[in-house]
Structures are given as structure tokens and as C-alpha cells.
Amino acid sequence: MAGAYDDRDGKIWMDGKLVDWRDANVHILTHGLHYASSVFEGERCYSGKIFKGHEHSLRLIESARLLDMTSPYTAEEIDAAKEAVLKANGFTDAYVRAVMWRGSGEDMGVSAARNPVRMAVAAWEWGNYYGDAKWQGAKLDIAKWKRPSPETIPTAAKAAGLYMICTMSKHAAEAKGCSDALFMDWEGYVAEATGANVFFVKDGEVHTPLADRFLNGITRQTIVQMLKDKGVVVHERRIKPEELDGFQECFLTGTAAEVTPVGQIGDWHFQVGQTTRDIAADYEKLVRA
């Protein structure tokens, strides 16, 4: 599939039924467009099976709740919608995007309790999120923006508004020839990339920022458990940026990123080492099992 995302062949599930791709539209006064009352999930389907699809459906519902929206669908109904989209488009390996938002209705202001909560599911074929960096190691910029305090915004939600600084930071990174950008949190500790969690390796042990102030990714949780099952010591803790000089390896995790090695962050350099290669291979086996 190629071309602009609003001009493609195929089917999108929208509010309970499959519609033609080009007809999956919303009104210009949709509340989510104006006030970011929108949550979403990104998932990958491997060989006809969505990896941890039900967990993603549950998180979508929880993200909506955190934004004061009640999902009009159960997790099981969302699972069925995703399967229907894959079948309708004939995909066995694809990226799946489920999105839920406040639509247009009687209210058009900050308050929109009377507006309906709507939902759609789309899927498309998508290769490596970071291209050749999947094998060679991504190059990351340091974002000028900070991840906000959980006291200022529901950081546990996969919400559209939380990605505004991600878009700006990734644009700035790409302009410098980088694949992505690394965020610090509001206290100056290492947080995450624009769409992926970050891990570091030192002397065979793994260190990753404690995920209590940004989204605890489903892929992140999977990788942490896989490492522990392999007997690798995993430290989930606050990491100061000056510590990056002492790490030998670095990798990113996420549904889109999968497991992607990092070769450089700012002025810090890392090797694409054995720990990273092993966990990437193990993850590939797991998702296709």
C-alpha cells in the first residue's frame, strides 16, 4: 500500500461497521481535533496474529477513562473490530491503529460531555520504523522539550495530546540527520524517545528508566520480563544523563520500533552488542511464535 494515508484502497472499521478507506471521515468540528480528546493504540500483526492485541484493547479503554471518556465498546468488541479490519484488507503482517475520540455533537468548547465517543480501526503494511537503523543502530538527538510531571497530565494514557512535543522533537532530530530524539523528564532524568522506551546495557546488566512518569509500554514490559527470564539483571531506576557515558549498549523498544539498537545519542556512542542482538532475536521469535 502506498500514497497519502487519506487516499488509499481498503477498508477501515468505524463506529461498528467497515467503510471504504476514503469515506472514513469526521466533521471539522470534531472535539478531538480541537481539544486533543483522543487516545489510540499502535499494534503489530505477525503471521495473522496481533501481538498482545487484547492487552492493547484494554489499554485503549483505560486511556479513554483517564481522559474522562467512556469507551462505547468492550475489549472483546475492539479485538473483533481489529480482526475484521485485517480480514477485510487481506493482511497477515500489518500495523494496526485503533483510535477513540470525542466527536462532534451538542458541545463545542472545552467541556464536551454530551458529545459521542467514537472509534475507528485502520491497518496497513509497514516495515521497519527506523529503516536501516534496525540493524545498524539509530542516531538520536536530545530533545529540548521535557516529559511533563504526572501532576500536570495523565502520563499513563496513550493520548494524542502527549505526542505534540514528540512530533516537534522528531522533526528537529530529523533535520539534524537523526532518527529520533531522547527526552529527559521535568526533573532532568532520562525518560524515553518520541515513540519508544529506552534501555541501556552495562557489564551484561540492563538499566531502564522507571516507567512511573511516562507510558509503560507493552513492548517495554514484555522485554523486561524476557530479560529477567533469561537471567539478565534489570535495573528499573532513575537514570541521570551523565550516566550515558558509562553504558556500552543502548536499544529502543515499542510496537512500531520493536527492538532497535541505538548507536549514538547526542555525543554519546554505543556499540550494537550481544545483549541487544540477543533480545532482538528473542523478541522476533516470540511475536511470530
TrEMBL record:
<dbReference type="InterPro" id="IPR043131">
    <property type="entry name" value="BCAT-like_N"/>
</dbReference>
<protein>
    <recommendedName>
        <fullName>Branched-chain-amino-acid aminotransferase</fullName>
        <ecNumber>2.6.1.42</ecNumber>
    </recommendedName>
</protein>
<comment type="pathway">
    <text>Amino-acid biosynthesis; L-valine biosynthesis; L-valine from pyruvate: step 4/4.</text>
</comment>
<comment type="function">
    <text>Acts on leucine, isoleucine and valine.</text>
</comment>
<dbReference type="InterPro" id="IPR018300">
    <property type="entry name" value="Aminotrans_IV_CS"/>
</dbReference>
<keyword id="KW-0808">Transferase</keyword>
<keyword id="KW-0100">Branched-chain amino acid biosynthesis</keyword>
<comment type="pathway">
    <text>Amino-acid biosynthesis; L-leucine biosynthesis; L-leucine from 3-methyl-2-oxobutanoate: step 4/4.</text>
</comment>
<keyword id="KW-0028">Amino-acid biosynthesis</keyword>
<dbReference type="Pfam" id="PF01063">
    <property type="entry name" value="Aminotran_4"/>
</dbReference>
<dbReference type="GO" id="GO:0009098">
    <property type="term" value="P:L-leucine biosynthetic process"/>
</dbReference>
<dbReference type="GO" id="GO:0009099">
    <property type="term" value="P:L-valine biosynthetic process"/>
</dbReference>
<dbReference type="InterPro" id="IPR050571">
    <property type="entry name" value="Class-IV_PLP-Dep_Aminotrnsfr"/>
</dbReference>
<dbReference type="GO" id="GO:0009097">
    <property type="term" value="P:isoleucine biosynthetic process"/>
</dbReference>
<dbReference type="InterPro" id="IPR043132">
    <property type="entry name" value="BCAT-like_C"/>
</dbReference>
<keyword id="KW-0032">Aminotransferase</keyword>
<dbReference type="InterPro" id="IPR005785">
    <property type="entry name" value="B_amino_transI"/>
</dbReference>
<keyword id="KW-0663">Pyridoxal phosphate</keyword>
<dbReference type="InterPro" id="IPR001544">
    <property type="entry name" value="Aminotrans_IV"/>
</dbReference>
<dbReference type="GO" id="GO:0004084">
    <property type="term" value="F:branched-chain-amino-acid transaminase activity"/>
</dbReference>
<comment type="similarity">
    <text>Belongs to the class-IV pyridoxal-phosphate-dependent aminotransferase family.</text>
</comment>
<dbReference type="InterPro" id="IPR036038">
    <property type="entry name" value="Aminotransferase-like"/>
</dbReference>
